[in-house]
Amino acid sequence: MANISVRGVEEEALRRLKLAASRRGVSLNRLIADMLNGAPGGKPAAPVEHADLDALAGTWKAADAREFDRATATFGQVDKELWR
Questions:
Q1: Per the structure, how many domains does the chain have?
Q2: φ and ψ at 24, to 5 degrees?
Q3: What gap in Å lies between CA 36 and CA 32, rounded to an integer?
Q4: C-alpha neighbours within 13 Å on the C-beta side of residue 20
Q5: What is the reported pLDDT for 44?
Q6: What is the pLDDT of residues 13-36, one digit of tens each?
């Protein structure tokens, strides 16, 4: 198995990697190796299950849903001029 060094990683990127490793309960090395091994030609990475929005599920009232639908209705419209 090969060892590599990666230079030029920005502090914010390193912070996010360390946070992701901590959340998964693995070392930074394991996280990065898994990410690289999941790249094309490698073994596929295991899917990550997220539960960060679970507390919000089922909390909307009917009026909230109607307001959301009204506010986002234009997102479902296609501008035919952009797709010629």
A1: 1
A2: -90, -10
A3: 6
A4: 15
A5: 55
A6: 999 999 988 988 888 998 888 888
* Residue 79 maps to a domain: no
Is the CB of residue 33 less than 8 Å from the CB of residue 45? no
Are the C-beta atoms of 28 and 17 separated by less than 8 Å?
Answer: yes
Contacts 24+ apart (CB under 8 A), 11-18: none
CB 37 within 8 A of CB 45: yes
* 43 assigned to some structural domain: yes
Evaluate whether residue 71 is within a structural domain: no
Q: pTM (2 decimals)?
A: 0.44
Distance CA 65, CA 62 (A): 5
In a domain, 74, yes or no: no
Amino acid at position 50, single letter: H
